[in-house]
């Protein structure tokens, strides 16, 4: 654990410092639904401003197609950052180029600006090392030092996360340091029983995680969209619910692997089936044996775990000494399908040991359901990144910082 931290950069007075933040907040019609990731970026930014650096914030937002798209502009995020900092925050409508260079030149000591969405540049996420490196070199021209603080992206080998750190003096910011301190505890001798709760919608991203977690945990609870691939693997018919047919065989292997390792792999016993994917959709609770026998037949969609499962999950969580949760149990954005997620969140607040919520939507879910950050041991800004860390994988964006 030799992560380079801010002090390794020395005196930053007057230095141009690029800070890679993860300001990828949920947005709807230009309105920020949860500003948790912006607030999480503030300690490092304040620290650098107080050190009289000239601060240049780089981030992505969403998944634009490698070209400018106003729907993914960071402009509203820059405005919100200014409100939170209580200081003027400049914004430039490009990441590199003449106006970006000019704006950086005009930046005074202790001032800050935000560059436009780095993913408007197709090279940012290129698989080709030379392409990425060339783009990172353009960014490097704007900076004397690089601070990496976007924990949510450290598992990505991308130009502004990985390559830039190889070109200019670089260090981890305060958010990454804080995230690692907590997640490290989950990999080094976590108190037992250790329970991991998984859900959400990025099914194929997350299925592989289970295999890696089996040797490390005591219990895995499955909810959310991925549960239907498990239920299908056990022979249940799941209607029109999210299902990764080509993963069914693999998932059957995980179920057997769990059994042979003595890990409890816990699936729901009841599901909330809905007539359609809508907030006001007709819905009914059914046992997992009868998901296609509701009035909606085979076109019904499972949008939440049922109340019996929620109560069972809650009691397993409450009796655990360490809990990590990633991925909502249902479509929490629709109040009718938020009960499973709420029950899990509530149970996490009662855990006596360490409870960690990871993931952009999971963090947004607990806040939108009215929970306060302090009720949990830690709310991680990274979903995929924290999962890969727990799997014991090498994360390119951390390795490059000396971790
Ligand atoms: P995180 O950002 O916390 O890692 P994900 O991005 O994987 O989580 O998933 C969050 C999304 O999963 C939410 O928008 C939620 O609506 C969706 N989701 C949860 N359960 C289901 C389900 N049964 N069917 C469809 N979508 C679901
Ligand atoms: Mg998400």
Look at the helices and sheets and give the structural class. alpha/beta
Strand order of the largest sheet: 5-6-4-1-7-8
Helix content: 25-40%
Quick one: biggest sheet?
Answer: 6 strands, parallel
Computed over alpha carbons, the radius of gyration is 22 Å
Give the overall average pLDDT: 96
Report the end-to-end length measured between terminal Cα atoms.
Answer: 5 Å
Assembly of the depicted chains: single chain
Work out the strand percent.
Answer: 15-25%
Number of helices: 14
Q: What would the principal axes of the Cα set say about the shape?
A: globular
Query: Which segments are poorly predicted (pLDDT under 50) over 5 or more consecutive residues?
Result: none
Bound molecules: adenosine-5'-diphosphate, magnesium ion
Q: How many strand units?
A: 17
Structure explained in plain terms:
- The chain is an alpha/beta fold.
- Helices cover 36% and strands 17% of the residues.
- The protein has 14 helices and 17 strands.
- It has helices at 36-50, 75-85, 98-105, 129-140, 159-167, 174-187, 203-213, 227-233, 248-261, 307-318, 339-349, 360-368, 384-390, 396-399; strands at 16-20, 27-28, 31-32, 54-58, 90-92, 112-115, 145-148, 170-172, 194-198, 219-222, 264-266, 270-274, 283-287, 301-305, 322-326, 354-358, 378-380.
- The chain starts with 15 loop residues before the first strand and ends with a helix.
- The model has no long low-confidence stretch (mean pLDDT 96).
- Adenosine-5'-diphosphate binds at residues 199-202, 224-225, 242, 302-303, 326-328, 330-333, 359-362, 383.
- Residues 199-202, 224-225, 242, 302-303, 326-328, 330-333, 359-362, 383 line the site of adenosine-5'-diphosphate (ADP).
């Amino acid at each position: 654990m030799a992560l380079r931290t801010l002090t390794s950069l020395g005196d930053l007075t007057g230095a141009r410092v690029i800070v890679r933040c993860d300001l990828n907040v949920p947005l709807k019609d230009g309105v920020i639904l949860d500003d948790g990731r912006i607030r999480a970026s503030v300690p490092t930014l304040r620290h650098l401003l107080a050190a009289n650096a000239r601060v240049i914030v780089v981030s992505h937002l969403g998944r634009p197609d490698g070209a400018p798209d106003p729907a993914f502009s960071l402009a509203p995020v820059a405005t919100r950052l200014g409100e939170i900092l209580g200081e003027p925050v400049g914004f430039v409508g490009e990441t590199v180029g003449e106006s970006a260079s000019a704006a950086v030149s005009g930046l005074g000591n202790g001032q800050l600006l935000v560059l436009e969405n780095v993913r408007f540049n197709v090279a940012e996420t290129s698989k080709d090392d030379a392409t990425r490196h060339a783009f990172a070199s353009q960014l490097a021209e704007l900076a004397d030092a690089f601070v990496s603080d976007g924990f949510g992206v450290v598992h990505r080998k991308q130009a502004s996360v990985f390559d830039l750190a190889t070109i200019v003096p670089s260090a981890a910011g305060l958010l990454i340091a804080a995230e690692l301190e907590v997640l490290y505890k989950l990999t080094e001798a976590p108190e037992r029983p250790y329970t991991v709760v998984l859900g959400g919608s990025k099914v194929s991203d997350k299925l592989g995680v289970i295999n890696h977690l089996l040797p490390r945990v005591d219990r895995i609870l499955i909810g959310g969209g991925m549960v239907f691939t498990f239920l299908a693997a056990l022979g249940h018919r799941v209607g029109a619910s999210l299902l990764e047919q080509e993963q069914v065989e693999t998932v059957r292997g995980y179920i057997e692997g769990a059994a042979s390792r003595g890990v409890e792999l816990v699936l729901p016993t009841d599901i909330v089936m809905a007539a359609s994917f809508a907030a006001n959709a007709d819905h009914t609770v059914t046992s997992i044996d009868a998901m296609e026998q509701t009035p909606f037949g085979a076109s019904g969609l499972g949008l939440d775990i049922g109340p019996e499962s929620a109560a069972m999950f809650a009691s397993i969580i409450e009796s655990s000494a360490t809990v990590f949760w990633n991925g909502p149990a249902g479509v929490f954005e629709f109040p009718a399908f938020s009960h499973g997620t709420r029950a899990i969140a509530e149970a996490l607040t009662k855990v006596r040991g360490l409870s960690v919520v990871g993931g952009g939507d999971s963090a947004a879910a607990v806040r939108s359901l009215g929970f306060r950050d302090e009720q949990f041991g830690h709310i991680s800004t990274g979903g995929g990144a924290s999962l890969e860390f727990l799997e014991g994988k090498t994360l390119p964006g951390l390795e490059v910082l000396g971790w």
